[in-house]
Amino acid sequence: MREEPLVRWDWIGRNWPSIQSLLEDHVVMSLVPIVVGLLVALPLGLACVRWRGIYQPTMSLMNVTYSLPSLAVFVMLIPVTGLATRATVIVPLVFYSLAVLIPAVVDGLGSVPDHVRQSAVAMGFTPLRRLLLVELPIAVPVVLAGLRVAAVSSISLVSVGALVGRGGLGYLFIDGWQRQFYTPIIVGVVLVVLLAAIADALLVLAQRLLTPWSRARGTA
Amino acid sequence: MNWLVDFFGDPANWSGPDGIPVRLTEHLQFSTVALLLAMLVALPLGLWIGHTGRGALLVVLSANAARALPTLGLLVLVVLLAGLSTDLPVLIPLVALAVPPILVNTYEGVRGVDPDLRDAAYGMGLRGGQVLGRVLVPVALPLILLGLRLAAIQVVATATVAAFVGLGGLGRYVVDGFATNDYPRTLGGAVLVALLALLVQLVFVLIQRLLVSPGVRRRNAVR
Amino acid sequence: MITFDEVTKRYADGTVAVDRLTLEAPTGEITVFVGPSGCGKTTSLRMINRMIDPSEGRVLLDGVDVTTIDPPTLRRGIGYVIQQAGLFPHRKIVDNVATVPYLLGWDKKKARDRAMELLERVGLDLKLAGRYPFQLSGGQQQRVGVARALAADPPVLLMDEPFSAVDPVVRTSLQEELLRLQAELNKTIVFVTHDIDEAVKLGDRVAVLRVGGHLAQLDDPATLLSRPADDFVREFLGRDRGIRRLSFVSGHEVGLRADLTVPVSTETAGLRDTAEPWLAVLDEDGRPLGWARTDDLPASGTLAGVPLAPYGTFDRGRDSLRAALDATLLSPSGCAIAVDDAGRAEGVVTREALSEALDRVAGGAHA
Amino acid sequence: MITFDEVTKRYADGTVAVDRLTLEAPTGEITVFVGPSGCGKTTSLRMINRMIDPSEGRVLLDGVDVTTIDPPTLRRGIGYVIQQAGLFPHRKIVDNVATVPYLLGWDKKKARDRAMELLERVGLDLKLAGRYPFQLSGGQQQRVGVARALAADPPVLLMDEPFSAVDPVVRTSLQEELLRLQAELNKTIVFVTHDIDEAVKLGDRVAVLRVGGHLAQLDDPATLLSRPADDFVREFLGRDRGIRRLSFVSGHEVGLRADLTVPVSTETAGLRDTAEPWLAVLDEDGRPLGWARTDDLPASGTLAGVPLAPYGTFDRGRDSLRAALDATLLSPSGCAIAVDDAGRAEGVVTREALSEALDRVAGGAHA
Amino acid sequence: GGDPLTNTSPTPADSGAASSSGGGGSKKVVVGSANFPENVLLAEIYAQALEAKGVQVEKKLNIGSREVLYEQVKGGGLTILPEYIGSLLAFVDKSTTAKSKEDILAGLKEKLPAELEVLEPAAAEDNNSLTVTKELSQKVGLTTIEDLVKVAKGYTVGGPPEFQARQEKNFKDTYGLEFKEWKKTGDATADAIKDGTIQVGNVFTTDPKVIINGLISLQDTKHAFGADNVAPLVNKAGVDETVTSTLNAVSAKLDTAGLLTLMKRVSIDKDDAATVAKDWLTQNGLAS
Ligand SMILES: Nc1ncnc2c1ncn2[C@@H]1O[C@H](COP(=O)(O)OP(=O)(O)OP(=O)(O)O)[C@@H](O)[C@H]1O
Ligand SMILES: Nc1ncnc2c1ncn2[C@@H]1O[C@H](COP(=O)(O)OP(=O)(O)OP(=O)(O)O)[C@@H](O)[C@H]1O
Ligand SMILES: [Mg+2]
Ligand SMILES: [Mg+2]
């Protein structure tokens, strides 16, 4: 066993095309839940702020969802979404990201200082405009912070899908495991982490670009 | 719902080495050990960094990277490298999973304590350790506990995957149910894990009630 | 004109924040609401722009019941400034100021030009226009808040403790800025504060409210200080009421003695036997140089070589009797030198002259 | 006694916060550091309890260089009060106050008893002892902060803008509380503020610092007001310097005229041809009732039926010349009635008497 | 046609590793495989052979156990699955006693539901086995399953989750074999044997870990596992003449030795199943 080197570089070279297609699959399956999650979390979060009463129940539901093991959910979805389809992986991940994003949206809107909201009202903003032009933009940093966590976990969780036949880079883990072969596993881990790092960096960049007004806020 | 009855109603599932009590105990066991190990690493580190402010950037960045570590990949790698003779290797990915939320929340909790409070504490003649122990930790406690709670829930939920490499616990039902196309079993396993997670939540609410001073208000957690 | 007509506000929990308030805030004047914390100042103010609607009674804006006007429309015509400025953290200063113009559909260029004009008007460096609020000091933010409220040139301005979060020095300069602006713009301003000094300084009329939302007194500041309606108001006005009242008496009230000033070129010889203990010495242009004590004058030579004691001056045209009093108290001679705008001495205010002026004022106060 | 000996503090980024500061804060007195924002007040204060160590020079506590003392030990002997009180949110009020006693190893019962005693002393309801800080108002929290600093009876108290976050009314009462406490306790207090009024009110000595960490002037408040060292200090002291200075002159300085008071039982007949325009009317116990104008007196009967104008009084024992001046300005007669502690009239202060007293003060100011 | 579930997926373009050709054509077949390397390799061989004939292929490899995949083939989610005839028969007919290839094929014909069919089996056999470490084999003298009978009461046996349910009775009936304990070691069975967690494990003789670790597979003298020739299980509705003939051509060339050689490449040389499959197909003139 010891003779098996940790990384066989030639293997990576030879199999790069298939690794690449796994990578692409991984990107799609982790990105879609974040985007869909965000699109759903925004209205839901708004609703939770508007009707405070539904926040707790919604979050309880989300927390229960969050504590369901991903593997089990993947398995149980197969009859609905089909074997080894992207949907099998994407659907549960949407819910996981909701569990992070809804509180982020709610906290984000909560981070709008009351005096800012009041002065928007006093200046004659209609409720919708106030939401779009004042409250949502101010909520951006908090929402983005949530989005970063959601993105990273989503990217990491996709690989579990490999156990039910569709896990992007997770395939490399199964493959390496079966063949007692470290290289694919290491390549997979490194690529997943790299992917997460890139997504994270992009979101940080987005935050910088979107919210120049919040930079160095703490020091002001 | 019939599925649930199929699984929970079967007396065979309540006894023997593959019975619910045994699986539940196993699951609890290694979840607890993993959580304890993670606490052992993350709590002191988080407290220290939050208190001294040293190495904060590095740790926060690497904690986020650790969050990205795919549990499955880590699991198979570790087991391949170290073998299955003990459960310890299997715990490594779980520990890696639990460290970031504990670390980040502990760090944020301590760091976020009003600087005036810290000032007042030093000004009254508390020593560094006393400031940490008597002021920073009690004030940061809600956030620290929240971090622990998130970690615990993630560990409980993710420990399921460990069944893939032959570990026991409730994950067995999920994995075996899938392998034998026995949906009630998978579903039953999932429900048990969710119930366990719920129980963990309850326990933490209780701990919170017991340990956190009513004078301290809650802040937002970082997942 | 803003009219409160028997206005009562009862909150859902039963608190009566405002109790049958009836008053008028005349057009083009600053009306100040002052009173202890919780007396219903904010509540009253917000009933004007319908942030809160009254439980009973009516609030009229130029005779029109505000509840008949759609709130956003109403509010766009009313400037509103609050304590924390309430600036939008995500918008640059210039865009903050242009908020209401944008809302009203002005074109972007015009709105920004207007914003720049206003920034200048409230005394802000135009360099700040491109910054974000967090990059400004508290006082600067407050100025932006005022500029923003003025952007669409609303006839009415509501200000809720706008200057209470900044330090005393900045606060004073903001107050003066506001008075200067108001002299130009003649808005109808309702200003809320819990600081009686601010109220007296800024208000054309001051409404003192007491907890429970009752109007205790409504008067111009001088009357308020000289004739408080009851013990509550007297207590609230605090100490120094007599001295502060002098702020409302023009420096012109006091008589001057020109014979106590002498040019620096004067020979000392002729001055030594004057009955006056002190003389104000002036330079060639008539500006004061200091006080010479007649007893100490040398036998010969001009005043040029004589040691002079520092002097107290006040500007008769601009300053009040209070400043005159202060100047006499600071001056070693017990007399103040009255100067004109250019700083040239017009004469000397003796303590007798001051006393006489004060007698007139005191007499007038209770006439 | 606290001694600053050529103390300089240079921060890592090169900012010189304090520049060769040399001064003494005498034992049992309140020394106030005042100055504009960023002038190094906080830095100076914190060098006393070693929250910051000086770059050069020495800070001595009763002759001992503080850098030779272990910081926690040093700090336990020095009370420290800051703006937001810095109360521990997780501890009940009583335990907050008992913090240092606990640290010093007092037994629990004794520490709590001491805490309760102090809560009472700073004027807090003992019911609050079992509450948590968030359940208290800002002013109450500030009082707890003071109590906590006093808990182990430290000889030295450092206070960094302790009252600047509360509203003016509460602030005044906190200031008075502090003066009352200090009268009992005689601590060595160093007090930081940027409010000159507070400095002048509280300080036995006031150190005015200018930005860059230079000491501009160190004097007792009266001297500071009458003889500011330079334009910076003069500017910083602001307007009304002359009037405010009167606060430091005792009411006893002014002479009284007893002949201007008349009992209410006096027949009017004999009073009508007095030269005096106004007379102070007293009741049987000698307490003032008001002013009667001699010209308007009826031909017969006692003063009992005569309409009286309201009066201004001042307490000669307690009040300053400033209150006397204010009273003369408020009184329709231009004269104030001096009363004793019990409220009985001692005589009348005429404007002439006041003028004379002021002359003495003004004369003294520049002697 | 195609996979309706792929259509419901939020991403329109299905460009993952699990598919090698854009979907959409009505003749597309879906090749699946169970989650062990040999099955993956076989699936690759089938898929590439079909592609070489111009058939549109979607691959869903390394997914799960027979229990899962069988249902999928039956339901049409998968079209083709590499199978092992003996095991398959045991699966569809729990009571079968057939041991020979002919009996098994006959049994399958009878028992398989109408929508399913097993195409021509290859000569290649991949037997299920009971496997032990070399050390244990030498120490106790184990070479056949029969040797195990006398010591098994002290041993723990492990295998995939479905193992106990499938085989416990069979072992007892065929050999009178009873173990102390049954463990579900799943994909870690070979590792478990190596570690000593279990003494005996159910792995395929071609499992890379058997090959890598030099484990000993005991001879199945009484054919408890039955003949396990490789054969494609297909959903009849999904395959046409081209597919059938192509797969039969593949089976005609595939023998046990050949398969073992291929598996050594996959296991030891760590060549990718796809590459190995391609090479074999080229060598045998089944693809260019
Ligand atoms: N939404 C509300 N519901 C119930 N009571 C309220 C509400 N808003 C204000 N109050 C109460 O109404 C009274 C008047 O409040 P208001 O804010 O108008 O006082 P204020 O004079 O502005 O005080 P401050 O100087 O503290 O700003 C207070 O007793 C306050 O507690
Ligand atoms: N840790 C630090 N590093 C660098 N510069 C500092 C630091 N702390 C304070 N300063 C600078 O030192 C100077 C004096 O600060 P200090 O806090 O003593 O002023 P202060 O008089 O207390 O002001 P304020 O009235 O605003 O509290 C300021 O210019 C400040 O910016
Ligand atoms: Mg208010
Ligand atoms: Mg300071």
From TrEMBL, chain A:
The chain crosses the membrane at residues 27-49, 61-83, 89-110, 131-149, 155-174, 181-206. Its main location: membrane. PROSITE patterns: ABC_TM1. The keyword Transmembrane applies. It holds the Pfam family BPD_transp_1. InterPro entries: ABC_transp_perm/SBD, MetI-like, MetI-like_sf. Keywords: Membrane, Transmembrane, Transmembrane helix, Transport. One of its GO terms (cellular component) is plasma membrane. Residues 23-204 form the ABC transmembrane type-1 domain. GO terms for biological process: glycine betaine transport; transmembrane transport. It is found in: Cell membrane; Membrane. It is a multi-pass membrane protein. Belongs to the binding-protein-dependent transport system permease family. This is Osmoprotectant transport system permease protein.
TrEMBL record, chain B:
Keywords: Membrane, Transmembrane, Transmembrane helix, Transport. It comes from Streptosporangium saharense. InterPro entries: ABC_transp_perm/SBD, MetI-like, MetI-like_sf. It is found in: Cell membrane; Membrane. One of its GO terms (biological process) is glycine betaine transport. Belongs to the binding-protein-dependent transport system permease family. The keyword Transmembrane applies. PANTHER family: GLYCINE BETAINE/L-PROLINE TRANSPORT SYSTEM PERMEASE PROTEIN PROW, POSSIBLE OSMOPROTECTANT (GLYCINE BETAINE_CARNITINE_CHOLINE_L-PROLINE) TRANSPORT INTEGRAL MEMBRANE PROTEIN ABC TRANSPORTER PROZ. This is Osmoprotectant transport system permease protein. The lineage of its organism: Bacteria, Bacillati, Actinomycetota, Actinomycetes, Streptosporangiales. Its main location: membrane. SUPFAM superfamilies: MetI-like. Residues 24-208 form the ABC transmembrane type-1 domain. GO terms for cellular component: plasma membrane. It is a multi-pass membrane protein. Gene3D superfamilies: MetI-like. The chain crosses the membrane at residues 28-49, 56-84, 131-150, 156-175, 187-207.
UniProtKB/TrEMBL annotation, chains C, D:
Residues 2-237 form the ABC transporter domain. One of its GO terms (molecular function) is ATP binding. The keyword Acetylation does not apply. It holds the Pfam family ABC_tran. Its EC number is 7.6.2.9. It comes from the Bacteria. Gene3D superfamilies: P-loop containing nucleotide triphosphate hydrolases. Keywords: ATP-binding, Nucleotide-binding, Transport. The keyword Transport applies. InterPro entries: AAA+_ATPase, ABC_transporter-like_ATP-bd, ABC_transporter-like_CS, P-loop_NTPase. Belongs to the ABC transporter superfamily. PANTHER family: OSMOPROTECTANT IMPORT ATP-BINDING PROTEIN OSMV. This is ABC-type quaternary amine transporter.
